[in-house]
Amino acid sequence: MGEAHQASGLLSSLSSDGSEVELSSTVWQEIYLSGLRSWKRHLWRFWSDFLTGVVPASPLSWLFLFSAIQLAWFLQLDPSLGLMEKIKELLPDWGGQHHRLRGVLAAALFASCLWGALIFTLHVALRLLLSHHGWLLEPHGTMSSPTKTWLALVRIFSGRRPMLFGFQRSLPRLPVPAVQDSVRKYLESVRPLLRDDAFDCAAALAHDFLRLQAPLLQFYLRLKSWCASNYVSDWWEEFVYLRSRNSLLVNSTFYMMDFLYVTPTPLQAARAGNAVHALLLYRHRLNRQEIPPILLMGMRPLCSAQYERIFNTTRIPGVEKDHLRHLQDSRHVAVFHRGRFFRVGTHSQNGLLSPRALEQQFQWILDDPSPACPHEEHLAALTTAPRSMWAQVRESLKTHATSALEAVEGAAFFVSLDSEPAGLTKEDPAASLDAYAHALLAGRGHDRWLDKSFTLIIFSNGKLGLSVEHSWADCPISGHMWEFTLATECFHLGYAADGHCKGHPDPTLPHPQRLQWDLTEQIHQSVSLALRGAKTLSGDTDCHVLPFSHFGKSFIKRCLVSSDSFIQMVLQLAHFRDRGQFCLTYESAMTRLFLEGRTETVRSCTREACHFVRAMEDKKTDQQCLALFRMAVDKHQALLKAAMSGQGIDRHLFALYIVSRFLHLQSPFLTQVQSQQWLLSASQIPVQQTHLFDIHNYPDYVSSGGGFGPADDHGYGISYIFMGEDMITFHISSKKSSRKTDSHRLGQHIKDALLDVASLFQAGQHLKHQFRSLGEEDSGHSHGSSLSSDTVGSKASPNF
Fold this sequence. Notes:
This protein folds into 3 domains: 54-134 and 143-158, no CATH class; 246-292 and 314-469 and 496-539, Chloramphenicol Acetyltransferase (2-Layer Sandwich), CATH 3.30.559.70; 542-645 and 677-796, Chloramphenicol acetyltransferase-like domain (Chloramphenicol Acetyltransferase, 2-Layer Sandwich). It contains 26 helices and 22 strands. The model is unreliable at 776-800 (pLDDT under 50). Belongs to the carnitine/choline acetyltransferase family. Residues 1-47 form the Carnitine O-palmitoyltransferase N-terminal domain.
């Protein structure tokens, strides 16, 4: 969701003090290592699938096949057509008394070979089916007969109950687009943003690139695509994330919010107990592959590789680049409260601790009156420091506080028990939501261990939040986990009438372990320096949450328009009114239709979008504006589908640039592409598990989404989520230090643009007059004053 900032910093991640960093390995060596890493993952996944079940077959299917062969052999039938006899001849002769054993072994070997061949055939057939992307090109909301037939075949070859990682060996690899197509699309995307002379210069650089460097770079990239599982993903993780030396705070983190209008319990320890238990239940299901894979249209699977590193994962800082450390298991969480660190065990001899037992542990921490040691309170600020600095300090910390550091980095995840309340308030709804978002995204600079894959944040009034580090996976993965957590802790685990977790305390449970840090004077100085930098960055971050309740997805559906394209055109109109100009726009699209796919960029600021915006500003007729709007939406849909099917621009050009760096080959065109600034970064947060929430009977019980920082110091970061059918929540961020941006100002432009675009349609012509004539100030609290952030009790315990 927030990778635009990291992508825009690619050039700085490959430079040091203004000079280019020389990549020591050759391109041949890097291609070999990429392939080796891919095959290691394949072998590990194969062994894991063998232990948990093979899709679309299972170990039981082998037993059935072996039994059928034995039965046929008993009936004096030979289904192997003589092969089992030849296998018996190759087996050692153990004497006459073992003649029957040789027959059983021969049947087992034949059954294994036949079973493996059948599985391989099924996987090949499924991969061929999944390589078809013609369904993406069909008009929105329609499905042809060939597509229906294709979906039926996919369903047949997928098996009855596919497991989470069951499709990994059948997913196709991300294709390498033709370099001429990528360059042409790039020039098309920047044409409406450049003057004639600047565009002519860009076109000349592109022509020289195609003539001189492109063939060689494309050759190496195709070679890598044959060797590695994905020609982009490993380099994207390394060069965009792990080689970045900037602070993780805001730059490589994003946040997820709690329910907007309700809080199941005001008891901080109780909410923590249920939430931690729900997260660990999710991990248990993940380890057993009991989480069903995400299927588009209920049948087309997406890659699940990113799920493997949700838990037990830490980003370890390095001087030149970081690395991700993932443990197979962890039976504790690290907890931060009032400047102190604790190790809380999550399991007993009987298994996972109950929510009530976990609540007991967290309550003990809240009640512990012991103060923080000197500089321990701000120790986590080191994780917000520039990565090279933190790497050097961490070496000293490993020497003087090994066990404490290991307890934090080896935890399943990090938990922060905040001492302040958060969430929507009746007194000042807008300001309270903005403060809530800022607390999740930036915090106070020392209350999150940003290296962990995610930090669960529980505020003093029971409000929840999630802060996620971006390198290990993208937003839909953590969003999937977060939906499960909210639904499970609220609807299935539930709370007692007094607000506590259900069940009884365990008096025999040992207390949480207080972590001890032996901090040297040098570490003290580093902590102080890191804290100053973190507070500066946090203080410069401007967050604004805009719940828009005048209409939502149901209205957009009635307009027969893609909801995502509708919002993207609204954002183009709002941004133009805010800045008076068009800019490069980064919209994240997933490429998980392919093995180990992550994201691709949709350049939403198209020539068609610009024509629509100018028509709106020039006060053209509604019919003219609507015609241009539909043309812009169609263009956006075409770009989105191209990105999803592996025909995007930016990941291909990024990979070509990395190859050029390995070859020490200067390419002015690729350098120009990678140096572009994304002044507008926008992303949708999809609700992926609608079955977990009854949005019709309980419309307030749905996550209000989350947000991320701006990609540029003078730009905006915008995420949005469709909450049910009649509400859209926007999360807007920018830098306070910029005189060109203002998150609240853009929020007002978004509200106006939503109503203006809706009025182009007959179904929405009443909206602008209805709401503006009333002079309403949209506080985002459309559900009544009784549903505020302190709502508890009966509203918090629906049972469905």
